[in-house]
Structure formats: C-alpha cells, structure tokens
Design goal:
The protein is of the alpha+beta class and 210 residues long. The protein has three helices and eleven strands, in the order βββββββββαββαα. It is elongated, with a radius of gyration of 23 Å.
Length: 210
C-alpha cells in the first residue's frame, strides 16, 4: 500500500470522550477547555463502500516520533487561531487513552466566545489534522492501522460530526483509494475465475453425457 503524504482530518469517534470546558476554582475567570483529538487502539469505521466497511485505528505508538512543534487550535480546521503551543495557551500530551488537548481560550474576545460555546455544550467534538508517515492494512478486516504520524498541524473544535459528505470523511476516503481499487480488482478477478471454472465444469459435464 502506498503512503499518502497529504493532510488527513479525523474526528474523535467515541461519544463518551467529549470536548468540554473545565470548571476551575478561583477568583479570576478561567477559560480552559480540554478533550482528546484522537484515541489509541480504538478501531472506527471510516466509511462504507460497496457494502464493505473500511476501518482505521491509531496505534498507541503512532505519535512517538511525530513533529508536533507549534500546533495551533482552530475551529473546523480554518480561520482564526484560538490557542497555540508557542505562546503557552495550548498543551498537548500523549497518555494511555490518546492525544490529550488542553487549551486556554482566555486570550481574546473571540476565543472567549468559543469557550462559551463549548461550555454551553454547543460544540462537543474535536478533530485533528496530520500527515501519515507509515501504516499497515489488514485485508481480512479491511482495517488500516496508522503506525506512525509524520506531523500534527492543528487540533480543532468541530461543529458537525463526520459524515459521508464532509471534507473530513472525503480525506479519509481518498487516502484509501488505492486499497479500494486493488480490492475491487481482486474481487473481479475472483469472479471471472469462478465463472471460467463453472463454464469448464458445464462443458465437461456436457461432454460426459454425450
């Protein structure tokens, strides 16, 4: 399977791991939010094509050598920067569960508005943008395992979960185009082979009856 170097986008799939505002005690208002941009070793379905579900999982060691220098915090992967590593308002850490995100959204009026949306439960999911360094693919389960991430570009609060019509889902689909075509060709060849065998059986049966 060829390795794609284009940027990928994924929404964290587990509904129980929501992006949320952190309630912290103190006299001054706090604008801290946290959640997981991705989880490890939790297979999820990327999409379904021709009756086949194509799955993906992020290896627990996938981020070990990744470039995570100055990752930024966005909304829907575009527009204004709400937090970033270089000024200390964004912290990323890899734990047993996944890539944990903690962001201080108190820097600007716009970032505080984003905090209020998250606090109100209007925005509850996270996504991340990255490129793949290495991967494996299991033909039996139709599962791609990302074993090494090259670079993490941003983590993002997202308003709409991934579905077949979103750019996020489309980037996942494009990354497996080669696999899908190869599997289609394999199934076509197997059907043609089975048809030839059946025709040969019928010919032999007809000859024996004569």
């Amino acid at each position: 399977m060829s390795i794609k170097n284009d940027r990928q986008y994924r929404v964290v799939q587990l509904p129980e791991i929501q992006f949320r505002a952190v309630e912290e005690e103190g006299e001054d208002p706090q604008y801290i939010v946290e959640g997981y941009a991705t989880t490890y070793d939790d297979p999820y379905t990327l999409f379904e094509y021709d009756g086949i579900k194509y799955n993906e999982t992020i290896s627990r060691d996938a981020l070990a050598g990744a470039d995570m220098s100055d990752v930024i915090f966005l909304y829907n992967h575009e527009g204004m920067v709400y937090a970033r590593q270089s000024n200390g308002t964004l912290e990323l850490s890899s734990d047993d569960k996944g890539l944990h995100v903690r962001a201080d959204l108190g820097s600007t009026e716009e970032s505080r508005k984003m905090f209020e949306s998250i606090k109100a439960g209007l925005v509850t999911q996270m996504s991340w943008a990255f490129t793949i360094a290495d991967e494996t693919y299991d033909e039996e389960t139709h599962t791609r395992t990302i074993t090494s991430v090259r670079k993490v570009y941003d983590v993002s609060a997202v308003s709409i979960p991934a579905n077949p019509n979103t750019d996020i889902a489309e980037s996942a689909r494009r990354s497996l185009d080669g696999v899908i075509k190869a599997e289609e060709e394999k199934r076509r060849s197997e059907r043609e082979r089975a048809e030839k065998v059946e025709r040969l059986k019928n010919l032999l049966k007809g000859a024996s009856e004569e």
